[in-house]
Amino acid sequence: MTATEPGTVLITGPTRGLGRATTLALASRPDGERPDLLLVGRPGSALEDVAQAARARGATVQTIGCDLSRLADVRKAAAAARESLSSGAVRPLRALIANAGAMSADTRQASADGYELTFAVGYLAHAQLIADLRDVLSAPARVVMLGSNTYHANIYRRLMGVPAADWRDPVEMARPATAETKPGFKAGGVAYSNTKLAILYYAHELQRQVAPGVNVVVFEPGWMPGTDLGRGMPAAARAMGRGLGHLPGVATPKRSGPALASVALDAKWGQLRDGAFVVRDKVTEVKPIAQDREREGRLWEATEQLLLDSAHV
């Protein structure tokens, strides 16, 4: 049972892994509970394929081609979504799932706007999209961000050498590393963990900024090795991830996709707000490092400036 009329769900990164599984879980809902879908992803055959698969399950689907590493593309995608909503091509926007992400081993790599790529795709692109669409969310509505326990490197990730966040001023984190910085798993992992900590901070502050009736939640699908998230990592690391993905107990898109769809729409999660952290299917308290009003305020301020700077390039 959904909390409201299902309306429309916008999801980024719908073509592979968790995003595709979530899209198809949403499209597979029964009549009366099935939302319309706005799929925001790289233009091409993969986007059209998942759209067709969702339509075959009965969903009304609009595709919006967008390279999330280009903030100009994100702004155009938001404008296209607004047009679909205002024209009646899809129903009111009830949920926005900020699913897409990237993990680059080379933190010297810059986005089209000159920002470190992992931070740009995983955090800044969604901050831009939400800034451009938050006024058209139709309450009761939800914003669901994708989080990860890597922000504090729990015991299992420590055993595997996955680095925790190393928080710095957001403007500094947005800069690509210098030419002298050696690429590798550690540097890429820190950038990824910083991005996930930024998402928690942003979700807390976003809840203070959005209109009444819009709830902000962070979803952690569980450890999911072997997905396309690590496509920017070295071949050896990708191969290891694929092998670990077969271990019992690890998360998979097939299991986590329906869980993410549930967090976006179902009544059981309807009271969650303030960036509540859902790990798989349980609300979990974040570590003290992830609750910091000063950092949250600074991140909000710096994000506004970074997005504004990109618009003037």
Structure notes:
This protein has a single domain (8-311), classed as Rossmann fold. Helices cover 43% and strands 15% of the residues. The protein has 10 helices and 8 strands. It has helices spanning 17-27, 45-56, 71-87, 117-133, 155-159, 170-174, 185-209, 235-244, 253-265, 293-311, and strands at residues 8-12, 36-41, 61-65, 93-98, 137-146, 214-220, 276-279, 282-284. An 8-stranded mixed β-sheet has the order 3-2-1-4-5-6-7-8, with helices on both faces. Helix 1 (17-27) packs parallel to helix 2 (45-56), helix 1 crosses helix 9 and helix 7 (185-209) crosses helix 10. The model has no long low-confidence stretch (mean pLDDT 90).
Gist of the model:
The protein has ten helices and eight strands. It has 313 residues and is of the alpha/beta class.
End-to-end C-alpha gap: 46 Å
Helical amount: 40-55%
Tell me about the largest β-sheet: 8 strands, mixed
Mean pLDDT rating: 90
What is the N-to-C order of secondary-structure elements (H for helix, E for strand)? EHEHEHEHEHHHEHHEEH
What are the low-pLDDT stretches, counting only 5+ consecutive residues below 50?
A: none
Q: Any idea what the CATH architecture is?
A: 3-Layer(aba) Sandwich
- For the record, what is the CATH homologous superfamily label? NAD(P)-binding Rossmann-like Domain
Envelope shape: globular
Number of beta strands? 8
Number of domains: 1
Strand order of the largest sheet: 3-2-1-4-5-6-7-8
Number of helices: 10
